[in-house]
Each structure stands twice: as structure tokens, then as C-alpha cells.
UniProtKB/TrEMBL annotation:
This protein's record includes keyword Glycoprotein: no
Annotated protein name in UniProt: Sodium:solute symporter family protein
Glycosyltransferase recorded as keyword: no
Keywords: Cell membrane, Membrane, Transmembrane, Transmembrane helix, Transport
PANTHER family recorded: SODIUM-SOLUTE SYMPORTER-RELATED, SODIUM/PROLINE SYMPORTER-RELATED
Pfam families: SSF
Length: 485
């Protein structure tokens, strides 16, 4: 009981600090732009900390441990390393994203290709946000339920309330500041488990004696095709992902946006091997009989890391680790909530439902949208126990399949047209769904490949044969923000 009380106390104090940060950040909010993009004042280190914490969520912590313990083995490190590669690419794109001076991805589509494109993009971007948020709630609830003995549904409810509270209060300021704190917890908490696990298992040689050689493969478990698909998926998804690009929109200038990408990539390379190695060590402990693997066999490998922590770590370190894991999941959940609120209010409510809405009314609507998405995500988290990685990859792929190319190329190619963008959005997104359901197959490759191919053909060919009449030029986009002010 003493162990449980110590662990729970640390985590409860941590959760309370997150809410306090949200309350403090709320005092910085003076207008809609402050809430959505932190007044465009963020430097590279704050942005990098926020980007790192945002994308390292349940999939990159619990999910990677789960896959390393299971079929992927040590090659599970590619799940995060692929993100590092994606952010190197994004470093070259980031200045163009910041230069557009918009608040959301659909807003860019509306200004570049027209209102209809903006509306369709908003719908496509909104749908995955609920699933992405639910993934993080599932991961957080898993941790709390193992740690406290609470029911899974109660654990989801607790995390949902905390994340919604600090996110709704402080907006981007709150999300960025909590992200930086959470990132330190993630790195320290995850790293601490390794030396304790090795000591508990009698050292590296003893602990890994019964681990098959194939579990150590750097590629075989995941497979080259999956690794390549991850890289492609992340580049496409992060480029159009509101939770990521909203950070670039918040940068104080283009240089800050670019440097933040480089810093984030370097941090991911360091972090990538930690959860993969933990998953391997957990497998060794179960094989050696040091840990009872029955709960993992009954409930699934997503319980691997919490079970391991409760077995091998002292109470204080367990509390730090669980706070770190909750950090990883909550940082991603809060970013997704803010993204959903931003898109609905900025790109659907304001232009189509209430054009005359005041700045105060828009802020209120953003917050109500975030609360609604929290509720929907809670419902999905309670009833959907899908594999974390699978659900994440589908959500990432859905929003990237049709939107990536018109969004990226639209910054450079003057000939891109509204009709070409619309064709890409519809056909690319539909291809993702059909490929995911097995209705169509493209040499048994991941859905992102046929989606991008269909998107590219539709975008290029339709753009060539349609007119750019009444459309805005790339260089004209910067003028919108000036006129809005």
C-alpha cells in the first residue's frame, strides 16, 4: 500500500502542476491569436521541446515497448527514428510554413485554393483528431489503471479531465509550456528504468541470455517496407498535421521554425532506442521467469511497460516514470485537442456559421469544441482497444493521403489550381480508406503509397487542365495577415 501511495502521490502532484501551468498560461491570453499561435512569439528551443513532446505520445512510448516486446523486437526503434528523419525534411519546409502567416492548415487551403478547399480540408483534418486524442487517452488510462488499481474507465476519465482543463485554459501558451516540462519528464523517466531493470535481472548478459538473436535485428522485425512507409507517412502527415505545423505558425520567425526542426530531430534520435531497449529487456525478464507475464498474455502487450515498472523500480522512480509516461500521452492529447478546436472554430464556425463572431466569441467556441472532442475521444478510448500503433498509423495516413501534396506543393508551384487540390483531397483520402479496408491493394504496400500516387496524379493532371482564374498567387499569401490586422 505504501508503494502505491508514494507512486500515486507523485503522479497526482504532477497532474496538479500541469493544471497550474494551464491556469498561469491563461493569463497571457488576450485575443484569438494568442490562444491559437501564442502571439507568434516562440523561439527555437521552446518550439523544439513542444514538437518533441507532442509527437512522442502513447505510440512512441507504450506502443514502441509493446512492439519491441512483441513481433518487431529491437527494430521498433524505427517508429521514432522515422520521425527524426521527417523533421530533417521539415527543416527545409518550415520557413515556408511560417511565411504563410496562417493559423491552421485549412486556412492555408482557403487562401491558396478557395473556401471550398478550405472547408473540405477542415473536415478531413478534424476526423483523425478524435482518434489521435483517443489513442493518447488509452495509453494514459493503461498507466493509471495498472498503477492505482482503478478501473480503466475511471482512469480514462481522470486523464481526460486533466488534459482538457489545462488545454482549454491556456491554449497554445499552455500547451507549449507544459510540453517543455513534460519532455524532461519523458526523457528522464524512460531512461531511469534501464539501469534498474538490468540490476533486477542480474546484469545485461544474464537478462538477455534467453532472448533470440532475431529480436535484436535492426530491421527484420518491422521490415524495410514498414520502415520506409513510416518515413513517408510521417513526412506527409507532419507537414499537414495541425498539431505540428501550429508550432511553426507560432514561431517568432522563419529561422526559429527551421532550427526547431533540427533540434527536434536530434532529440528523437537520442530517445528512439530507449523504449525499444526496454521492450527487449521486458521480454528477457518474462523468458527468465523474473516477471509473471500472465497479465500481458491476458490483457495485451500494451501493459508491458507499466507491469515491468511496478516489478523492478523503487516507489519514487515508479512515480517519476509514470509521470513521464503520462507526460508523453498528455502532451500529444493536448496538442490534438487544440488542433481540433482551432480548425473547427477558425475554418468552419467563423466563416460558415457565424461570420460576425467577435474575438471573445471565437475564443469561447474554441474552448467548447475542445471540451466536445475530449468527450468523444473519451468514449472511443473506453470502447476501443485497438492496437495503438495501428490506430495511430491509420489516423496519420488518412489526413496525409489527400492533403499533403496540394499543401506542400502549393507553397512552390504557381500552376496548382483549386480543382486540382479538390481532386487530390477527395481521391487521396478515399484511397486511404479503401486500401485500409482491403477493398483495393497496391502490391500489398501500406495505404500511404497508393494514396499519394492517386493524389499526385489527380493534383497534377487536373491542375494542368483547369484554370487559375481568381486564385491567389503564392507570394500574395503574406498580404492576408497584414490586411487582417
Amino acid at each position: 500500500m505504501g508503494v502505491s501511495l508514494t507512486v500515486v502521490s507523485i503522479v497526482v502532484i504532477y497532474l496538479g502542476i500541469m493544471v497550474l501551468i494551464g491556469f498561469a498560461a491563461s493569463r497571457k491570453i488576450e485575443n484569438n491569436e494568442d490562444f491559437l499561435v501564442a502571439g507568434r512569439k516562440m523561439g527555437p528551443w521552446l518550439l523544439a521541446g513542444s514538437l518533441a513532446a507532442t509527437e512522442v505520445g502513447g505510440g512512441s512510448s507504450l506502443g514502441v515497448v509493446e512492439m519491441a516486446y512483441g513481433d518487431w523486437g529491437f527494430s521498433a526503434f524505427w517508429y521514432v527514428t522515422a520521425m527524426a528523419i521527417a523533421f530533417i525534411v521539415l527543416a527545409f519546409i518550415a520557413p515556408h510554413l511560417r511565411r504563410a502567416l496562417v493559423k491552421t492548415v485549412p486556412e492555408y487551403f482557403a487562401k491558396r485554393y478557395g473556401k471550398k478547399n478550405g472547408f473540405v480540408t477542415a473536415i478531413i483534418m478534424l476526423l483523425p483528431m478524435v482518434g489521435l486524442t483517443a489513442v493518447q487517452l488509452i495509453a494514459s488510462a493503461t498507466i493509471l489503471s495498472v498503477m492505482t488499481g482503478w478501473s480503466y474507465a475511471l482512469s480514462v476519465a481522470v486523464v481526460t479531465v486533466v488534459v482538457a482543463a489545462y488545454s482549454v485554459m491556456g491554449g497554445m501558451f499552455s500547451v507549449v509550456y507544459t510540453d517543455v516540462v513534460q519532455w524532461f519528464f519523458i526523457l528522464i523517466g524512460m531512461a531511469l528504468i534501464i539501469p534498474f531493470a538490468l540490476d533486477y535481472g542480474g546484469g545485461f548478459t544474464e537478462l538477455t541470455a534467453n532472448i533470440p538473436d532475431e529480436k535484436w535485428s535492426m530491421v527484420d522485425g518491422a521490415g524495410f517496407g514498414t520502415i520506409l512507409a513510416l518515413v513517408v507517412m510521417y513526412i506527409a502527415s507532419f507537414t499537414v498535421g495541425q498539431e505540428a505545423v501550429q508550432r511553426y505558425y507560432s514561431a517568432k520567425d522563419e529561422k526559429a521554425a527551421k532550427n526547431a526542426s533540427y533540434i527536434t530531430s536530434a532529440v528523437y534520435v537520442i530517445f528512439a532506442f530507449i523504449p525499444a531497449f526496454i521492450g527487449i529487456l521486458m521480454y528477457g525478464m518474462v523468458q527468465n521467469g523474473l516477471i509473471d507475464g500472465s497479465i500481458i498474455a491476458e490483457q495485451g502487450a500494451r501493459y508491458a511497460l507499466p507491469v515491468m515498472a511496478m516489478e523492478v523500480l523503487p516507489p519514487v522512480v515508479v512515480g517519476i516514470l509514470f509521470a513521464a509516461l503520462i507526460s508523453a500521452t498528455m502532451s500529444s492529447a493536448s496538442s490534438n485537442l487544440l488542433a481540433a478546436g482551432s480548425i473547427f472554430t477558425n475554418d468552419i464556425y467563423h466563416p460558415y456559421i457565424k461570420k460576425s463572431a467577435t474575438d471573445k466569441e471565437l475564443l469561447k467556441m474554441i474552448r467548447w469544441t475542445m471540451i466536445l472532442v475530449s468527450g468523444l475521444s473519451y468514449a472511443i478510448a473506453v470502447f476501443d482497444f485497438a492496437n495503438l500503433i495501428t490506430l495511430l498509423m491509420f489516423s496519420f495516413t488518412l489526413r496525409a493521403g489527400g492533403a499533403f501534396l496540394p499543401y506542400l506543393i502549393g507553397h512552390f508551384w504557381e500552376r496548382a489550381t483549386a480543382a486540382g487540390s479538390m481532386a487530390s483531397l477527395f481521391l487521396g483520402s478515399i484511397t486511404v480508406v479503401l486500401a485500409e479496408r482491403g477493398v483495393i491493394s497496391f502490391f500489398n504496400l501500406d495505404p500511404i503509397y497508393p494514396a499519394l500516387i492517386v493524389s499526385a496524379i489527380a493534383f497534377y493532371s487536373v491542375s494542368l487542365f483547369t484554370s487559375r482564374k481568381n486564385m491567389n498567387k503564392v507570394e500574395d499569401l503574406e498580404e492576408f495577415e497584414v490586411e487582417a490586422k
